[in-house]
Amino acid sequence: MSKITAFGEVMMRLEAPRYATLAQSSTLNYSFSGTGVNVASALTRYGHSGRVASVLPDNPLGDAAVGYLRRLGVDTRYIARGGRYIGSYFLEHGFGARPSRVTYTDRWGSSFNTADFPDELLAGAAADSDAVHFCGITLAMNDRVRDAMKRFARFAKDAGKTIIFDCNYRPSLWGEGGYELARPHYREMLAFADIVFMNERDAIHILEMPTGKKDRMAQLQELIPQAAEQYGLRTVAGTHRSINADGTHELRGYLHKAGQFSFAKPLVFAVHDRVGAGDAYASGIIHGELQGADAAHTVSFASAAAMLAHTVEGDTPLATEREVLEAMREGISDVRR
Known about the structure:
The chain is an alpha/beta fold and 337 residues long.
């Protein structure tokens, strides 16, 4: 199996219980997450060695985060310690017409976002990995983090490693004029990348790719091959999601490779916890790509992994490879005894 290192912030998730709002609740449950944590943990459950390259405060809060990651099976050798704060977010679960809500705090002053990332750390992590993973959420932080991200990608590229980039554009993180601010940084990262997670909206708004088509699927099928050719991308993947009147979600995964699209069967399911499901899908694609699996199998596996991630509490995907394969074969089932 492969060694995958994800670069990104480890965050504290503070969750109001059940469907309570922050105004109602006097208690919060906490855990630790982040895109890198989620991807590394999921890939570890599939038999790979998942690592996180990050910085955590050198205090009991940082100790708790490191301990939590180790319990997930994540290798923490490339987590440096320093600074005073950990980035965090408050989660309120939606119900019915009320959507879930995430409120960030301490992001800009966190240990990760104020750290110096020495070349020795980044080059060492790149040399010791088969693949490295980057996310657009991290790219949105500040110039210090963006510089480290690009240096890490360059070290990995020069060493012949697989570069994975999840566009994951968040308007709230880039602020006013976000697309213009983000565009040059996304183009730089795409120039490094081999495996990319993006959709037609990324192509239209971030990459300024024109289309006369109105339907999302038609836009996807027109623009993704163009983006893959322009940036030399080996694989491009993502999902289309819709929410039904009864509150269930419908998800359809896609994968573009070697000039061809593969689409998973649409999956319809109830949602327990929405946060982190995209990371579960990405991890399924990465797993298939690193194994050299057939594209149709990979996209179906990733879609089933995303579906299962909606059924457990917390950001971090917990399904094993066997459980995902069973979900592919059986769909939704009753109690297994």
